[in-house]
Amino acid sequence: MTTPLPRWADLLVIPLLNLLLAFLVAGLVVALIGENPWRALTVMLQGAFVYPGSLGYTLYYATNFIFTGLAVAVAFQARLFNIGGEGQAAIGGLGVALVCLALDPYLPVVLVIPLAILAAAIFGAGWAFLPGLLQATRGSHVVITTIMFNFIAAGLLVALLTGALMRPGQSTPQTRNLDALLPKVHEILRAVGIDAAPSPLNVSIVIALLACVGVWLLVWRTPFGFRVRTLGESEPAARYAGVAVPRTVIVVMCISGALAGLMAINEVIGAQGKLVLNYTAGYGFTGIAVALMGRSHPVGIVLASLLFGALYQGGTELSFEFDTIDREMVLVIQGLIILFSGALAFMLERPLARLLTPRARLAHG
Amino acid sequence: MSAPPAISLRGISKRFGAVQANDAVDLDVAEGTIHGIIGENGAGKSTLVSILSGHYGADAGEIALFGESVKLASSADAIARGIGMVHQHFMLVPNFTVLENLQLGFAKTRLLKAGRKDLLARIAAISSAYGLEVDPFAVVERLPVGLQQRVEIVKALIGGGRILILDEPTGVLTPDETDRLFESLGVLKAKGVTILLITHKLREVMAVTDNVSVMRRGKMVAHRQTAQTNREELAELMVGRAVRPVRNVSPSANGEVVLQVERLSVRDETGAERLREVSFDLRAGEILGVAGVAGNGQSELLAMLAGLMPPAAGTVRIGAREIGAASPSDPAEMRALGLAHVPEDRRREGLVLPFAMRENAVLGYLDEARARRPWMIDRTRMTGRCQALMDTFDVRPANPALRAAGFSGGNQQKLVLAREHGASPRILLVGQPTRGVDVGAIEFIHRQLLALREAGCAIILVSVELDEILALSDRIMAMNGGRIVGIVDAAEADRQSVGLMMAGVAHPLPTGTAEPVYRDEAIL
Hints:
The complex is a heterodimer.
Chain A: H1 7-32, H2 37-50, H3 54-77, H4 85-103, H5 109-138, H6 142-161, H7 185-191, H8 204-221, H9 223-233, H10 235-240, H11 245-272, H12 283-293, H13 298-321, H14 327-343, H15 349-364
Helix pairs in contact in A: 1-2, 1-14, 2-3, 2-13, 3-8, 3-11, 3-12, 3-13, 4-5, 4-6, 4-11, 4-12, 5-6, 5-11, 8-9, 8-11, 8-13, 9-11, 12-13, 13-14
Chain B: E1 7-16, E2 19-29, E3 34-39, H1 45-52, E4 60-65, E5 68-70, H2 75-80, E6 83-86, H3 98-106, H4 112-130, H5 145-158, E7 163-167, H6 175-190, E8 194-199, H7 202-208, E9 211-216, E10 219-225, H8 231-239, E11 257-267, E12 273-283, E13 287-291, H9 298-305, E14 313-318, E15 321-323, H10 331-336, E16 339-342, H11 346-350, H12 357-360, H13 379-392, H14 409-422, E17 427-431, H15 439-454, E18 458-462, H16 466-472, E19 475-480, E20 483-489, H17 495-502
Parallel strand pairs in B: 3-8, 3-9, 6-7, 7-8, 13-18, 13-19, 16-17, 17-18
Antiparallel strand pairs in B: 1-2, 1-4, 4-5, 9-10, 11-12, 11-14, 14-15, 19-20
Helix pairs in contact in B: 3-4, 13-14, 14-15
């Protein structure tokens, strides 16, 4: 018999304990290579939040993670494991680039941007539609198909960025600079008279937060979300309740893909201003860890995204500061955090439950 | 000076979290007797048996077997002490032969072949000694359920069993197979085997046991000699209050035909024909009981009518809608046609266990929760609806915010029934309405079904509990191998005639010849 933990313990204490464990082990590793773990932590925190512009970078990374984390979380509500965020984001980027390349010479920026955002979502959804369709009608597992679609997407982008979409007269695999760009946050702040260090942070983060609210409403407040959650908990119950299972699977996958695709706006018309090869840089995969750590809930995903954003940004700083800590070492630390908060997420559940129940028993007399 | 009891338990206690499953239980079972243990679901019978078979350790208390105090640390310990257990759900590998299944536990040699002859001899010895014939080379899944159970009994005895524990052994058997099981138990008893029979069916206790012990809420509340008690007393001891059995006594309404099934066939996913050319009518205000051993097409009949399986051939007509192979239906459409469904497996289908009760209260009826804003769920309405259902059907605790998983089987079933009842259906499909439901709730559920019938609802009742079907139905339809064996008026049916039909005998014996008519007795 398992004693379910109170909600606050499940949502707060467990993730914090996991994080603490991860930092402890990471600290041991840092100590092993002869550095002071405490100083490393300080550098990392300063690098993520304190140095000029660092907070902007942290939030900019977090924006990517919010989109890809939400994508995984939405699909997971129906117990679909969409690990194709990487490919869906790449194709979303293609959609953004195509819209901008085709329209920004002719239309004003204020018109192109909404169309580009729409294209990000539609292209991402389209890339998730086929795996969803195959799952719904043929029973092909989305884990397999989405990961295969990642490769197809990567190949497609290589072909296009070294061919039709490559900047004329250049040999780097990227498009020309796009005109329709999202405003950067530091520019907006300067416009209203607040001095801010430059960073790639742009208004995509507002769209990401709106997406969080949207996902929360969709999953927990609409009849569609109710059906999705029913399907996730028990497919026989969903069939019994009249849920059109194949259609629901397809629609959920499309929504998931659209969210992953939206990540493109933060990069393509946000930070970089062009579509470059491999711009997704593993954000799609990290979204899985974000969703796991955030317990597939928008609030948790925002918090987990902040953490991973800080790790990305602080980790970069770490490799600047220490000779012995290189990029790979930072990956080890990030890996430890994923290991403890993702793969071993439920390791502490039982001990904690045991710790909490004696008190409950005493209370009952 | 009498011999020490075969089993003697003193002060056995076991706690799971907040639940005191066994509370200072005492029990004496005399050697060579059949001893019944009865109690409602959750009374602690299964826990007690698990302790006795070494599966759980008791928190406190002592166990003595044949006068010798023992510690049973594992199932192997219990088997070595001569305790054999026959589980409710068989512990056999379906695609192994009988011999292979027995080798699984009792092959003592490194190579299977070496011990084979020896084991075959032991099987033969047991078969002849106790009259338990089994073919060692038959594949288990091809054996009828009654014979599979016999294999389990042989398995229990081959370990040197002097004590045989049977947990709800008749749930999966036809009445005929049940009779044969009880004959076998009689032989075993005559040969000196001590038998502990766990059941909730009072008729069986009265039929075969020498002594009976009653459990309620983890405590042993009474010990009786079977000859000196009766069903009414035992029912009262089990429930803790007097129980009035529910019967369908009012004449059939003879209403209009609301559902017409013609030459309906249904195939499952593997293409096997599960329902073969089934035809019947259903009238408003009647309860049509579907009798049959589990797996003879009743589940598929319910699933098809609920829109969960498409017909392979034939038609179903509800009002103007004709459902056929070319025009299948779905559960949402069937609900719109006025058909409600209490599914056989409420834990997998009828409820989403991790959901709050209020969400379960609108499962399949989401429109009830979104009147004002069509694209949003109105949580106030949803909670209000759940509260109303809980109040009218006495679901306890009446708190819509609690998860369905935390409710007892009876309360879960009451909510499912309340939800389907709340849709004011013209047709209600009910599968196993009282499986895993305690006696008090059974009484309530039966009354609600009869009240719906009075209100003109047409009900199809599928149940493996023949007594339930006999007590509630206007007409009884017996199924075997996916076919309808016959449809008879309940007034002319009894256990024996329906039992024969369930076994596939199309023309039942004239009623009133042999067995007493159980229809007039307690449905317990």
